[in-house]
Structure formats: structure tokens, C-alpha cells
Amino acid sequence: MSSNDPLKAAYDHATRFMSEAGQRHVGARATREELLDALGGPLPAGPTDPAEVINHLALAADPGLVATIGPRYFGFVTGGSVPVTVAADWLVSSWDQNACLFVTSPAASVMEDVVSSWIVDLLGLPARAGVGFVTGCHMANFTCLAAARHEVLHRAGWNVETRGLRGAPRVRVLVGGEVHVSAVGALRYLGFGSDELETVPVDDQGRMRADALRRQLGDGRGPMIVCAQVGNVSTGASDPVADIIAMAHACGAWVHVDGAFGLWAAAVPELRAQVHGIDGADSWATDAHKWLNVPYDSGLAIVADTAPLRAAMGMKASYLQRGDDEERIGMDWAPESSRRARVVPLYALLRALGRDGIAGIVRRNCALARRMAARLAAAPGVTLLNEVPLNQVLVQFRDDQTTTAVIARIQAEGTCWAGGAFWQGKQAMRIAVSNWSTTEADIDRSAEAMLACYRATVS
Ligand SMILES: *Cc1c(COP(=O)(O)O)cnc(C)c1O
Fold first, then answer.
1. Is any atom of ligand 1 closer than 6 Å to the C-beta of 239?
2. Which of 221, 162, 225, 228 is nearest to 197 (CA)?
3. Of 170-174, 216-220, 314-318, 405-409, which range is least confident?
4. What band does 350 get if pLDDT is binned at 50, 70 and 90?
5. What pLDDT digit, counting tens, does each position of 385-417 carry?
6. Residue 319 has pLDDT above 90, yes or no
7. Does the C-beta of 287 come closer than 6 Å to ligand 1?
8. How far is the CA of 58 from the centre of ligand 1 (A)?
9. Candidates 77, 138, 392, 394: which one to mutate for ligand 1, based on the most atoms within 8 Å of Cβ?
10. Which of 68, 182, 189, 293 to mutate to test the pocket of ligand 1 (most atoms within 8 A of CB)?
């Protein structure tokens, strides 16, 4: 063993992994059985030296790690992590603060207040808006929609927190045909079954059709929630939110926007038109661990009016010391009590990059996505299926079957990693450029590798 200090051992392994991530085979290299062999076995009866545990862990897990932090991982919509955010994340674990109450960590509570106002400013949302710090966009959708459920029923004279949903006035929930599964999941946890949702048709890029929404809203009046989306997970396209908000508000509906990655277009002057009118919504869910490139466990639930969120989430117990009104109680803003100070890496990112640095990542990734699209679409037999408004590229290689084969081949080949999606009847390869460190050379090298896999498949 090189050291008997587990922290030093972890530091060495972590920094080596981070510096080599750009060179390694991007996908994992081990099967489940191989990983079970390396990591499994019976529960140890007694202790093992801590540094040895860390060294074993680094060695045994390594072939099962995916280089998602590297510059050529294009799967799902996956951010890497800017080094300053990893460093801040180490502090989170070392400090081990509980962001539950003010008294359990005044520093975490104040950082949540500071980052909340910075985020609202960065996204050009109403200054009175507030942010709850949750694990990811899925839970951000849940948190925002809990606030929505509270408010629309409150306006109908019903307190859902005390009376529940049984016997409550019916809440209509309208979603686009391309609603993200996590919003459907979130609605399910809130008592709205997936069959109850009213689906609004979308166009060929997955955008909710405003004319169809107008028809479906009709002259509806009662409790109503409309879920819009900016940044479709396959095409990157955004719903016409200004129109949606105007129509929905005319009917008294709450408008929630799922903007897991697409919301960050609002932080880039030349992209903001894609989400024009977004500041008029009632709630917004987004991720920091996707496009902002902070480590996992970072989602933001943003509400224009904070009272419904705090009504939906807040809890009281005699032993919970609540402190002064201006002191933020983390658990009033999120569906959790004890939780890590997940705001810290985001605080570090915003301080390190500033408004221009954040916009720079988003802008660069969009330009790189267009470069990828142009390289691939220039090859005979490759069809571009989306307009590439943001960082998503959707392509088909000749036909469904060939595309599936090319995806499998590129994942095994290891230069880069891209997954698939079935888009409006066609099998596609789905390429998301979300990493802060990706360069033009990475795009060119990856496009070359994908085209080589295509040629190998059809030859
Ligand atoms: C990724 C994503 C989500 C879910 O976010 P998690 O961070 O995985 O919880 C929700 N909506 C959209 C549009 C997404 O892309």
C-alpha cells in the first residue's frame, strides 16, 4: 500500500481518474459477472485497513466506470463536472452539514439563499422567485407540481395538505405528447394517474402545439395545471411557452415548465428567444448536474411565488428549532429533511465561472452539436432528424436496423458513447453535447469514429 491514509489514497485515485478520463475507453469494459467477482464475496467478518479499502475500490470498480466526465460522452443528457465543483463536493462530504434547518448549518442555509437569487437572476426569472435544492429534475418536477397542486386546489377552496385528494375538486392536468417520463412519475406520486393526464399533440420536433392546447383548454375554469417543456430530451426543441402561458393563465391554470437542460438557454442572450416568455410561468424544474456540469445530486425546483411551495413542503414538530423568519429552513423547500449541502458545488461553479462562463458552456456545446450534425449529415445515407436548436443531435444511419447496429458498434469501439431513441417512428442515434470540456477535435474524432462504424456495418 502506498499510503495508509484513505483520504490521500482517494485523492490520488480521483485525480488520476479525472486526468485520464479523456483518454480512456468511454463505455464500461466489464460485465456484471466480472464486477461481481471483483466487488462481491461474503460480508467481511472483521476490519480491513481503510486505505486498502479505497485502493481495492478504485481498482475493482474501474472497469465498470463510464467516462461520463470525459469530453466524448454523448449519452442521455449528461454533464461532466468542472474541477472546482468536484473540489467543492469534497468539502460537502468533509463538512457533512445537514441542510435541513438553519441551526443545523447556517452556512448551507445562507448559501442556498445566495445561490437561489443568483440562479433567478441568471435565468431572467421574476426576482421574487425562490429555489428549492433537490436531487435532480425528476424531484424538481415533483416539488414544483406539489406547489401547483396546493395552489390550484387552494383557489378552489380546498386544502390538499390537510384534506388530501379524496373528495377534492378534480384537477385537470395537461401535458404535451412529448412530456418527459419524470414529470409523469412526479404527477403519479402526487395522486394524478398517468391515464388521467390530458395529452396535447406535438409537432415534428416534439413541441406542444399551441392551437391544439387552445382547443383542449376550451373555456375551462376549474383547477388546472399545464406542464410545458423547454428542451425536448431527443430534439432539444422547446414548447412555445409564451403562447402556452398566455392561454393557460387566461383559464386560471398553473403553468409548470420542465426545463431540465433547456432552461439554460435562458442564460444565453442569443438563445433566449427559444424560451421567450419563460419568465411568465409559475414554476420551473431544472438540473444543475446536466448542463451546468456539477457532480450528481443537484436539481432546482423554482417557483415564482414561494408560499405554495412552502405550504406543500413545510412541516412542523416541537423539536425542530425553526429560528427567525428570515432564516431559510431547507426542509420547507424540498421533499426531504436531512440532506447534504448540495448547494455548495453550485455555489462554487457560479463563483468560478460567473454569468459569462455559464453562458459560454451552453453556447459552445450548441456550436459543437451543430458541427457534429453537419459532419454526420454530410455522409451519404445519414439523415439528420432534428433542427439542432440546442445541444441534441438526432441522426439515422440508413435505416432502423443499421442505426441500431451502429449504436452498438460505437459503444463497443469506445472512442465516444452515444445512445439511441425511437423518434416518431424511426430508430435514431441520439447525441447530446453537454460537457464543459468537449472541443472541436473531440467532435471531429467522434464523428469520424461513428462514420467508420457505419461503413463497417454496411460493408
Ligand atoms: C433528465 C430530464 C429529467 C429528469 O432529470 P433527472 O436529473 O434525471 O432527475 C426531466 N426532464 C427532462 C426534460 C430531462 O431531460
1. no
2. 225
3. 314-318
4. very high
5. 999 999 999 999 999 999 999 999 999 999 999
6. no
7. yes
8. 29
9. 138
10. 182
If you search the block for the grid coordinates 485502493, which residue do you land on? 55
Residue of 101, 135, 144, 141 lying closest to 342 (CA atoms): 135
Instruction: Tell me which residue of 214, 208, 291, 216 sits closest to 246, measured CA to CA.
Output: 214
Furthest CA-CA distance within the chain = 72
C-alpha torsion sign, points 393, 398, 401, 405:
negative
The residue assigned the cell 440532506 is 339
Instruction: Render pLDDT for 51-91 as a digit per residue (tens, 0 to 9).
Output: 999 999 999 999 999 999 999 999 999 999 999 999 999 99
Ligand 1 midpoint to CA 138 (Å): 6
Q: Using CA atoms, how far apart are residues 161 and 142, in angstroms rounded to an integer?
A: 15
- Beta strands 198-200 and 172-176: pairing type? parallel
Residue 99 alpha carbon to ligand 1 centre in Å: 23
Length of the chain: 459
Closest residue to atom 14 of ligand 1, CA basis = 260
Q: At 64, list the grid cell.
A: 465498470
Cell of 372: 457534429
Q: Establish whether residue 138 lines the binding site of ligand 1, counting it when its CB lies within 6 angstroms of any ligand atom.
A: yes
Structure-block grid coordinates of residue 250: 387566461
Residue 38 dihedral angles phi and psi, to the nearest 5°: -75, -35
> Distance, CA 150 to ligand 1 centroid (Å)?
23
- Give me the mean pLDDT over the 352-359 stretch: 98
Q: Is 256 in the pocket of ligand 1 (CB under 6 A)?
A: no
Mean pLDDT of the chain: 96
Q: Which of 198, 205, 302, 309 is nearest to 260 (CA)?
A: 302
- Ligand 1 pocket: which of 76, 233, 300 to mutate (most atoms <8 Å of CB)? 233
Task: List the beta bridge partners of residue 198.
Answer: 174
Closest atom of ligand 1 to 299 CA is 7
Distance CA 96, CA 201 (A): 47
In angstroms, the first-to-last Cα distance of the chain is: 50
Helical (H) or strand (E) element with 256: strand 254-258
